Amino acid sequence: MAVAVRAEGLTRRFGAFVAVDHVSFEIAPGEVWGFLGPNGAGKSTTIRMLCGVLAPSAGRAEVLGYDARRHPEAVKARIGYMSQRFALWSDLTVRENLAFYAGVYGLRGREARERIAAWLERLGLLDRQDALAGTLSGGYRQRLALAAAVLHRPPVVFLDEPTAGMDPLSRRQFWELIRGFAEDGTTVMVTTHYMDEAEHCDRLAFIDQGRIIAQGSPAEIKARQMVGHVLEVRVEPLIEALAVVEEHPAVREAALYGAAIHATVDQPEAGPALAAALAARGFAVEGVEPVLPSLEDVFVALVEAREREAAA
Amino acid sequence: MSWQRLASIVRKEVAQLLRDRRTLGSMISLPVIQLVLFGYLSSQVLHQPTVVWDQSSSAESRALIQAFENTRYFAVRYAARTLREVERRLDAGQARVGLVIPPDYARRVRAGTPAQVMVVVDASDATGAQVLMAVAGGVGASLSQDLAVRALARRGQRAPPPPVEVRTRAWYNPNLESRVFIVPGVLGLIMMFTTTFMTMGTIVRERELGTLEQIVVTPLRPAELMLGKILPLVALGYLNLTFILVLAWLWFDVAVRGSLVLLYAVTLAFFFSSLGVGVLISTVSRTFNQATQLAQLVLLPSILLSGFLFPRESLPPPLQGIGYGVPLTYFITVLRGIIVKGVGIADLWPQILALVGLGSLVFTLAIVRFQKRID
Q1: Alpha-carbon distance A152 to A114, whole Å?
Q2: Per-residue pLDDT, B165
């Protein structure tokens, strides 16, 4: 079997609103597949259809060869799922939470105890196993939720915004866990709205307003989708400068990127002219340099291109 | 149905219930508060504060006042010297009954001519007032007969037997104590409230927390989830029932006269309907607050229609009809039958049958709705 997860023209309407609009993709076994897009783009709805808990309005969702709509029980027994909300009971202890999921997924006796013990050690929670889950910090909680979702070693794992609200260090640790599964052969589908996390994925898709607007490996997407070049403009004051950069004739789009502005231009030689224009308006320009486009730049460019098309 | 999955959810629910001190505390305090409130407040018709304006001040008038006090319904608290004073005590709510004895009372009684005394009752609470007026009338009648017999005896005659003598017996509750009526009602009411609210709590809370979203993706089936949540609540309901029965017995002296086995068996049938109502409400509520409001909409009418506080016979016929659809109606009848009258299946089978029927109906509906809402 060459495909672990397959979506074919997957569509979900809620009344007149189309949450997921003819989405198609294939995830190979052992792949870390990222699903990126802003909040409300249709990521969770897609995952819920793949897990067999939401019926598609049209199209097919298939996991490990099982149609999620016709055989939801077969799919549910073979997947792990972590929702974007806190999926643990804060009035149960760390161990009780894990024991509940072990029981629900049919793990028994010694096997269950050993796997729980192994995860407690891996998460560094051995000495807090009898503490209430509600007393854990956010990062630990998310990792515990992940452990609960994969305790039964499912071949396919769906993680819906697993790193939402985490600090950068916790996010990095979390991604190390995810890479760990993938190396063991687990297929991982992970959604996020943090663009920097996309670089951790083998392949990914961008979704916006229910439609996939680009997919491939990070390198492929950057190469294929990015028309133009990116200039990183370091300038003070930042917010006021953004308006000036946006209006400059050589600039196609501009967006804040950390403590700088990323401007998409057709010609990289436009840099000095842009710097001069900013200086002429009284801004303190520290530097304007061409940089490699990040996935975020690509995404911003794609979304703005789409919006221009829609307006035209 | 997998026993292992069912056991997992039962273990989880039990752990959460045992950790929820507030709910457990309310399961103990609620019965105590309710029993005290209903058990004591409703017997207030005894020892009513009474103001007396005795213008006769004679041995006869004192005998009359004593006769009133002997009934235990009247407790003389105030002596008035004017009618205005009697009015003032009643207006202020200090006295509930006013007794006015005319100046010529003793003379008329001695002469054997009809004497009139006036009894004024504050009838703001109509039920209590009716009782007091009937008792006052009874005092007058028995005193009159007594005087007549004595008058005849003085003339050396024997009194003829009264043409009609009505002898009354209060069955099942010979001392007419309201708590005997109230305790089974409070028991039914608490059983209904706790089981319905606990069910709503345990289901709606999962939805509010978002854990339901996670549970539906596991192999756990809706029927396993629902049963796993309900079984611990049935056990808790039985603990609560036992606690209330012991409390009623030790504190209020109301012991179960009939079969305890039958009482516990019938309670299971009632649990099916009250738990089912809880599940049904949870399937249409997003938050616990919504569920609570809906529950009040459902539970308050069943209190009024079930005959918990006033006899169902006093309701207008259409409301009586609706009362037949309320499980609490049958449960309270059965509870009163078993606890107060000590009767068994031979007398209670129609109510038990109705209870089992309603319970199965509500519970089946709940399972069907729950399956749909969870998937």
Answers
A1: 12
A2: 73
Which of the residues B1, B4, B21, B218 would you substitute to probe the A interface, choosing the one with the greatest number of A C-beta atoms within 10 Å?
B218
Separation of alpha carbons B90 and B51, rounded Å:
8
Query: Which letter, b or e, does each residue of A288-312 get, where b requires 16 or more Cβ atoms within 10 Å of its Cβ?
Result: beeeebbbbbbbbbbbeeeeeeeee
* Residues 6 or more apart whose Cβ sits within 8 Å of residue A60: A6, A7, A8, A9, A10, A67, A69
Do the bridges between strand B97-101 and strand B118-121 make them parallel or antiparallel, or are there none, so unpaired? Answer: antiparallel
More confidently predicted of B135 and A165: B135
| DSSP β-bridge partners for residue A235 | A285
Q: Which stretches of chain A score pLDDT less than 70?
A: 1, 86, 226-227, 312
Query: Do residues B248 and B264 share a domain?
Result: yes
User: Is A252 within the bounds of a domain?
Assistant: yes
Residue with tokens 């209020």: B252
Contacts 24+ apart (CB under 8 A), B363-368: B363/B272, B363/B273, B363/B275, B363/B276, B365/B276, B365/B280, B366/B226, B366/B275, B366/B276, B366/B277, B366/B279, B366/B280, B366/B283, B367/B223, B367/B226, B367/B279
- Which of chain B's residues have a Cβ under 8 Å away from the Cβ of A86? 209-211
pLDDT over 70 (residue B375): no
Contact flag B11-A73 (C-beta cutoff 8 Å) = no
| Residue A202, min C-alpha distance to chain B (Å) | 25
Contact A79 B15 (CB under 8 A): no
Q: Are A30 and A187 in contact (CB under 8 A)?
A: yes
Rank A212-226, B159-173, B221-235, B311-325 by mean pLDDT and report only the highest: B221-235
Q: How far apart are CA B290 and CA A179, in angstroms?
A: 43
Question: What pLDDT does residue A86 have?
Answer: 67
Q: pLDDT by residue (tens digit) across A140-150?
A: 888 899 899 99
- The answer to whether residue A112 is domain-embedded is yes
Q: What are the pLDDT digits (tens) for A119-162?
A: 999 888 899 999 999 898 888 888 899 899 999 999 999 999 88
Say if residue B209 is in the same domain as residue B344: yes
Determine the residue type at B124.
S
- Structural domains of chain A, count: 2
E strands present in chain B: 48-54, 74-79, 97-101, 118-121
Query: What is the number of residues in chain A?
Result: 312
* Three-class HEC string of B29-71: HHHHHHHHHHHHHCCCCCCEEEEEEECCCCHHHHHHHHHHHHC
Q: Element (H or E) spanning A215, and its range?
A: strand A211-216
Task: Note the pLDDT of residue A104.
Answer: 93
Q: Which domain holds residue B89?
A: 48-154
| A82 to chain B, closest Cα gap in Å | 7
The answer to whether the beta carbons of residues B305 and B319 sit under 8 Å apart is yes
Task: Give residue A126's domain range.
Answer: 5-222
Percentage of chain B beyond pLDDT 70 is 95
Task: Assess whether pLDDT exceeds 90 at residue B173.
Answer: no
What pLDDT is stored for residue A102 in this prediction?
A: 94
Indicate which CATH number applies to the domain containing A239.
Answer: 3.30.70.100
In sequence order, the β-bridge partners of residue A66 are A63
